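To make this tangible, we now present a fold written out as tokens:
***
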Amino acid sequence: MTVKKIDLNTSILANNEMWAKRNRELFDAEGIFAVNLMSSPGSGKTTILEKSLDYLTPQLKLGIIVGDIATTEDANRLKGQGAPVVQINTHGACHLDAQMISGALSSFNLKELDLLIVENVGNLVCPADFSFGEDLKVAVLSTPEGNDKVRKYPEMFRKSHAVLINKIDLISFVDFDLNRVEEDLKNLGSRAEIFPMAAKTGQGVDVWCQWLIRQVRKTG
């Protein structure tokens, strides 16, 4: 009997890339710019989105997909702010994959969208490996998480095109050195744009949004 060894990780990623390619082709055909927003739980992704919508919706037509293991709490917070919101519950999976995103796209009128933002499941490991065909990967790092996250989770930050440093208003109360984080990103070879902000108060959110709008219009 012949025993065939299958690398499940390679197989899973290959299947994801197939779906990501389909999504990418659809985004290109419809003129949609897609953003993958990633972070650990509690970093403030949903608050950043809440504040960002105030700046983005007057200028762009948005759609939002929210990924969580359970509940619709984050999606409910974002509804009624000028952008359609679709919730995906993974029921245990630690990330959104390209096939999940593909299934959610049918809930939007894609011809009416300029920008799709996906709030991924809170996790600093898996979301970095599972592209869904996005234009930009954006990582959120909050100051209470500490200085070491870039070094501990290099793949997440190496692949990100932008890093939002949230809760900057707490920096004097926590063990966080912005210069150290910037140096760690450089050591990874990252060219990510860095945006310090305090989403709860709105500080710095406008700068991030202006940059994002430029990226969307650059490819439009």
The chain has one domain: 32-219. The two ends are 56 Å apart (CA to CA).
